[in-house]
């Protein structure tokens, strides 16, 4: 489904800017994930057991998906809703579907 | 499936130590992933468009899964095979199944 | 996330009834999937090779997800959009998020 | 990853034939899944609410994955183990990895 690839930078902005609190909450989660990725590097350097590393990778995946889900939720409640109210709903929904499809691949 | 939770540190070691080349290859990928996670932090700080951030999160997920798959492959070809040859195969296979299940959740 | 369980029958209806053509297209896919499930039963009865059966199960999963994705797309373009236009958007979006979460588990 | 496509019929057999009890247990699950697929067809014919249908599709996916996981577990404990003990381990492990990859796509 190559036609479904989304651009890296759309040049768009969130319909409602994120508050400082919202930004900080996401940043805290991402910093924790960054720390987890560094933790795995240390495990590889120490030649730690493969399954132990895999367990950590699966934990990072879950943490990342949680961040993604929260962004998706906010996006739908603000950007998609806003677009629909302004009459550009179909475009926003198509974009939403493409990004969902990208996650399921 | 709480009974399926694996310990964070099993105290075990890979059946065959990773070579320096192998370690370096995994570390390079993990460093790139770490950079991608930092890139998302910057996107959040700059209040970038939600879907653009989601596309990056999905890319990190794929990159992490690739690292995980390679570790899994090596683990099965060495640790699981080794355990089976030494007569401890069932335990190693059960552990493998648990970690697969953790990834699919 | 037990609070996220959706009811088996909400008693609701699609905002825009499915046309006969739409129904038939979904039914055709589902009948093909039903045939594939029966095909796997035959494979089990004939004691066919495990990996061959797994390949078929993975094919059914993909076919089912395709049906699901199409329903989701239609649902968002009609029911969710319609609810937003009528001022009940947040409820419809929450419901959408719950069902997405159910798929990712 | 087209090179990773597995054949529909490998002509191989399980290392240890499934007992009648094992076959029956898998068949019972598959018959239940077949019934669920028919249930969705009825829901589509009755123009039932999209989200209600999606919930059912997600349930079938989970049930199918459970059957798949059990087959995978048995396959690894018998066929893969057997191949390793007979010295054909690497081929069996490669095949296992390919089928895992097919499920994650």
TrEMBL record, chains A, B, C, D:
Q: Which domain of life is it from?
A: Bacteria
Signal sequence, renumbered to the chain = none
Per the UniProt entry, what are the Gene Ontology biological process annotations, in alphabetical order?
negative regulation of DNA-templated transcription
Keywords (alphabetical) are: DNA-binding
Segments of this protein annotated with the region Disordered: 1-23
Could you tell me which Gene3D superfamilies the record lists for this protein? Metal-sensitive repressor, helix protomer
List the Pfam families hit by this protein, alphabetically. Answer: Trns_repr_metal
The question of whether DNA-binding is a record keyword is answered with yes
One Gene Ontology molecular-function label: DNA binding
Would you tell me the protein name for this molecule?
Answer: DNA-binding transcriptional regulator, FrmR family
Organism field: Halobacillus dabanensis
């Amino acid at each position: 489904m190559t036609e479904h690839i989304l651009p890296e930078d759309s040049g768009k902005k969130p319909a409602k800017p994120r508050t400082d609190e919202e930004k900080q909450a996401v940043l805290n989660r991402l910093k924790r994930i960054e720390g987890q990725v560094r933790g795995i590097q240390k495990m590889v350097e120490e030649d730690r057991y493969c399954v132990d590393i895999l367990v950590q990778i699966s934990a990072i995946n879950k943490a990342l998906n949680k961040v993604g889900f929260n962004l998706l939720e906010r996006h739908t409640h603000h950007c998609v809703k806003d677009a629909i109210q302004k009459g550009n709903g179909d475009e926003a929904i198509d974009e939403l579907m493409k990004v969902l499809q990208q996650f399921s691949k």
